[in-house]
Structure formats: C-alpha cells, structure tokens
Amino acid sequence: MTEIDKNVEKKEQQNKSFKPFLELIQALVIALVITFVIRTFIFQPFWVPTTSMVPTLKVNDRILVNELFTRYGEVQRGDVMVFHYPLDPNDIYVKRMIALPGESLEIKEDGIYIDGEQIEEPYLVHDYKYEPMGPVLVPENSYFAMGDNRDHSADSRIWGFVPEENFIGKAFLIYWPFSEMGQIE
Q1: Which residue, 59, 88, 156, 172, has fewest beta-carbon neighbours within 10 Å?
Q2: Residue 13: its pLDDT value, please?
Q3: Which residues are catalytic?
Q4: Between the CA atoms of 84, 62, 70 and 117, what dihedral angle is there, to the nearest 10 degrees?
C-alpha cells in the first residue's frame, strides 16, 4: 500500500467516525426548524395564571392554542380565545367570546341578552347576578369577551371590546395536568 493510499484510507476512516455526529446535528436542526414552524404558525402553548376562566380552565392549566384558526376560522359565540389585552398588548388574556361584531348586547341582572334574546351558557356552574349594562352595539371586527368565573373576571365589562387583530388563536386543548387533559368546550 502506497503512502497516498494510506492517507486516503485514513481520511475515509475519519469521515466514517464523523458521519453519526453529522447525522445527529442534521436531525437536531430539522427538529428545531419543524418545532419553530409549528410553534410560530400552527400551535402555541400557554398557561393559565388566574381563576377568571374557572371551571373551564384552572390556575396553572397548560393549554394549546390553534393559531391557524385566526387566519382561516370564524370566531363563534362561546369560543375560548387567547388574545393580546386591548389596553396593553404585552399581556395575554384568555376569555370566552360572548357577543360578535354587529350584535346588540345587554346584560340584565338575570343574564346576557344578544339582540334581545337571552343566551344559554352551559359552561357556567351557577347562576350569576349581573350588574346591568347596555344595550351596546359590538363594533365591526370586535368582540365582547367574558371569563367563565364571572364574579372574578376582569373582562369586556371593564375594559371594552377585543379587536379581531388582537387574537392569537383559539384555545382547544388542556394538555397539563394530565388529569385535566381534554378538549376545551
């Protein structure tokens, strides 16, 4: 074997020893890119810091938010949405959408009325006595949001409407704790 052949064989051995390392780096880069794309454009995890959505969401629940919904879906009454707080976009809120753009909302002591009809709210665990409000017309491209724990929720009754452009996505799944895992209704 010539000296050149020995050098070629030595280089091939070095390349073989680096190959698994390079494949590992390549797999990590691909995983990071996929994670970045999913987290940025499709699903994003959030945690719930307050009791305002009890019993639907509890403090420290971890939820997944579908960000594609804000681009391709249509927000319906009762959807639980995550959004930038209208008075300080650095804060993130999660609330239920109660009134949609163009609807007339009135809160009476015994319930919430949309366009003159009382709405059903099966996600509430007891009857609330509301402070009367309205009627008010929900502006175009805006929503009236409320927490499910009405006595302990700072929501549209206090700070106004949620502009559509503030939406991050629709909360659809509790993934932590495992005992609470399930679809958000």
Answers
A1: 88
A2: 77
A3: 52, 95
A4: -80
